[in-house]
Amino acid sequence: MTEEASSFDIAAELKKLPHQPGVYIMRDRHDSILYVGKAVDLHNRVHSYFRKIIGRGPQIDRMVEQIDRFEIIVTDSELEALVLENNLIKEHRPRYNTLLKDDKTYPYVKVTVGERFPRIRFSRELKKDGSRYFGPFTSAQAVRETIDLINKLFGLRTCARELPTSGRACLNYHMKQCSAPCIGAISKEDYAERVNRALAFLNGDVSELLGDLEKKMQTASEELRFEEAARYRDLCESIRAVTAKQKMNDARGMDRDILALYAEGADAVVQVFFVRDGRLIGREHFYLTQAQSEDPALLLGDFVKQFYAGTPFIPKELFLQTQIADPGVIEEWLSARKGERVHLTVPQRGEMRKLLQLAAENARLVLTRDRERIRREEGRTIGAVKEIADLLGLAHLSRMEAYDISNTSGFANVGSMIVFEKGKPKRSDYRKFRIKTVAGPDDYACMREVLTRRLKHGMEEARDLEIREIDERYGSFTRFPDLILMDGGRGQVNIALEVLEELGIDIPVAGMVKDDHHNTRGLYYNNKELPISRDSEGFHLITRMQDEAHRFAIEYHRSLRSKSQVMSVLDGIPGIGEKRRKALMRHFDSIEAIRNADIETLMQVPEIRRREAESIRDYFRDAAAKAGKPEKA
Predict the structure, then answer these.
(1) Is the pLDDT of residue 471 over 80?
(2) pLDDT in tens, 37-48
(3) I want to staple 269 with a disulfide (CB 3.0 to 4.6 A). Which of 71, 367, 469, 529 is the partner?
C-alpha cells in the first residue's frame, strides 16, 4: 500500500497548542485513534509525548512512534476534560487506553423524583428510569458525604419502604434526621417542598449553607477544636465538588447536536458537538468555503440545510449559537426526515449556552490555527468526493464502500469491505468476510458471495430494528452506501449489478479500472470508462480507497494463514486439544510468543493449567534441542 505524505506538521502544530484544559486525541497514519487523554494544560501535556524521555515505558514509546497527527478539544475545566475523556474512551475504545469493562466509572447523585416520596441515592449507573441525575463526579466519597448531609438538612427518607406504612418510624426520625413520611408525620406537599430545596442545592444554590459551615469551621479553629474544624473544611470541599458545574454529560440521556460558528472575513468554521444518550461523544469541524456573507445567522442556516440533508442520523434537538432564517420551516423539514419531532433551540443561559460557547471557542482555535491545513484537507476529502460525484453525475455522494478479494491459489479466500465517508476512512464500519461457498481461485464468485451477504445482512438488520430513520449507531450493514466501488472493470461491476438487481436494491456501482502497471486510470460506470486526471484530488481519493481495500483484505488473509500455521504447530503438543489451541491463539500474538513464554505466562490463559503449561514448554524445548543437534555422519 502506498501512503501519501501526511500534511500534518507535528512540530508546527505543537507550537499552536493553547495553555488550556482539554482532551487530546492521538491518531495513526490510517486515522485510527491510538489514545485519548486529558490535560490541565494541553500545551505542556501534548509536548511531553514528543520529548526525548527515558524510562516512560515501551508501551508509550510504541504509541508515540505511530502518531501521525493529533487533535484537541478545549474545555472550561479539568473536571470537564476528565468526563469528556471518559466518554471518548468508551465510544472509541482506543488501542493504548486502559479500557473498563462497563460504564460504572464515575458516581452520580440520583433523585428518585418518580416516587411519591423521593429519595436521594448514590448511583454508578445513569438510567432512563424517570429519576433526576446529577454528575458524574470524580470523588465517590464526596458524593456519599454530600448525600448524607442533604438527607439530614432536609429530612429526606433513606429507607426503601413502601409508603405509607402502618409500622413505626425508624431511628432517623427520633434523631430528627428524617421527616418520617412513612407514618404520615409530613404531608406529600410539604415533603415535595423539601425535595425541591434539595434539588436547588444540587443545582448549585449552596452559598448560604457554605457560609454557615465556613463560620463554624472558623469558630472551631479559633477555639482550637482542630479535628472539628477539619470536618467542616472537608464537608465544604465535598459540597463544592458535588455542586461544581460540568457540561460533558446530560443526565436526561438526550440525543443532541450543538452547533457553533466562528468566522473571519470569507473564512468560517462550524463546530458540531455530538451528544448521544446524554454523553458528549465527539465532535467534527467543517470549513465553509466561499462564504459570501459575514452574517452568522445566514452562514449557520446554510450549514444546517446542507449538513442535515446528507447526514444519516438527525437528533431530537439541535442547539444553535444563533437564530437562523426560517426556523419553523427547517424544523418541519427535519421532523419529516426523522419521522418524529425535531426542535431547534437557541439557549440564552444555562449549561447548553456554556457548551455552545465552548464549541465556538473550539471553532475559533481550529480556524486560527489550522486555516491552511483545513483548506488542504477539505480539498483532499470533501473536494475529492465532489469531483467523483461530478464525474459520475451523482446528485449526492457521501458514503462510499469498496471491496476486494484475497487468496493464495484459492486457499483461505477472504473479502474486504472498506468505508469512506466525506472522503475519510470510517474504520468502525470496515468488515471482513471469510468466503464460505467458493473453493479455488474464483474472484467473481467470491465477490458475488461477499456482496450478497453484505446487502442481505443490511436488509435483515434494518427489518429487525424496525427503525424509520437509519441511525449511525446501529452499524455499517444497515446503512447502504451512495456508491459501490469495485476493484476492477466491467466484470466486477456486472457482478455487483446482478446482485443488486436480484435483491431489488438501487445503488450506483463504478469499477476502478487499472492500466498494465496496476495503477488506476479511470472509472468504469454505466458501460463507459471515464478518464480521470492523475493530478486531481478525486483520483488520489480513489487510489487511497483501492489501496485500503487491498491492504485490509491482505491483512485478513495473512492472519488466517498465520493462524492455520500456528494451529498445525500446536497440533503435536500432548494434552492440547482444539479448545486449548484456540485459547492460546487468542491470548498470544504469534507462535514465537508461545514458544518464548514461561510457565507462569502460559498459565495466564484461563484454559491452561500447570500441567498443560509444562507440556507446552517441554514440547518446544525438545523441538529446539532436536533442531540444534548436528546431523549424524
Answers:
(1) no
(2) 888 899 999 998
(3) 367
